[in-house]
Hints:
Elements (H helix, E strand, L loop, with lengths): L10 H19 L1 H9 L1 H17 L5 E2 L2 E2 L2 H33 L2 H4 L4 H12 L2 H12 L4 H8 L3 H19 L1
Antiparallel strand pairs: 1-2
Amino acid sequence: MESYNPELMDICEYLRLARRIIYKLANKYGKNHITKMLKDEEAMGNLASELMFADMKWDANYKGVNGPINRFTYRKQRAIWAILAFINTYQKRRFISLDRLLAKGRDFLQPHSNVASLKETVQYCCTKREAEWINLYYLHNYTFREIGEQYKITHANVHHTIKTALLKVRKEIA
Length: 174
C-alpha cells in the first residue's frame, strides 16, 4: 500500500475529503447548514481549497498552545474555519433579504405569499409592543421619533427595541 503523500492528491480527492469532513461535523454545526453547504459548489470548492492550503502550509515543527499539531488536526481546524465562514455568509444573506423585504413596505409585501408567514413569525417570537412597532416602522413608515412620541419614550429606546425584535425574528427564521 502506498504511503500518504499530500503532494499527490488532486482536487477531486480534496473534494471527497471535504465531503467526508462535512458529514463528520454535521451534528456540531447543524444538518440544515451542512445540507446547504453540500449543495453549494462554491462552498465545497472553498473547503477543498482550505484543505489544500492546510497541506501546503503545515509545518511538522509547529507547536501550538497544547503541544505539537499534526497535519490532520490542522486540516480539521482549517475546515472548521471554512464551514463557519459559509454559515455566517449564509445567515447574513438570509438576514439581508428579511431586512429588504421589511424595508420595501406594504405595497411590496401584500402580493407575496410569504407575508403571512413573516407576520406570523413576528407575532410568534415578539411581544405585542415589538410587533406593533415593527408594523408601524416598516409598514406604515413611521420614524423612531414618531413611535417614541406616541408611546412617550425616547427614539433610541424604540430603535433598540425594534432591532432586538428583529434579532428574535432572524433567529426564528434561521
